[in-house]
Amino acid sequence: MTKAAVLGSGSWGTAFAKVLAEAGTDVTMWARRAEVADAIAHTHENPFYLPGTQLPDSLAATSDHVAALDGADIVVLAVPSQSLRANLEGWSDSIGKNATLLSLAKGIESGSLLRMSQVITQVTGADPSRIAVLSGPNLAREIAARQPAATVIACSDSARAIDVQKSCATGYFRPYTNSDVIGCEIGGACKNVIALACGMASGIGLGENTIASIITRGLAEMIRLGVALGAKPATLAGLAGVGDLVATCSSPLSRNRSFGHVLGEGGSMERAQEAAHGQVAEGVKSCTSVRSLADSYDVEMPLTDSVHRVCHEGMSVQEAVGKLLGRQTKPE
Ligand SMILES: NC(=O)C1=CN([C@@H]2O[C@H](COP(=O)(O)OP(=O)(O)OC[C@H]3O[C@@H](n4cnc5c(N)ncnc54)[C@H](O)[C@@H]3O)[C@@H](O)[C@H]2O)C=CC1
Ligand SMILES: O=C(CO)COP(=O)(O)O
Question: Which domain of life is it from (predicted)?
Answer without folding.
Answer: Bacteria
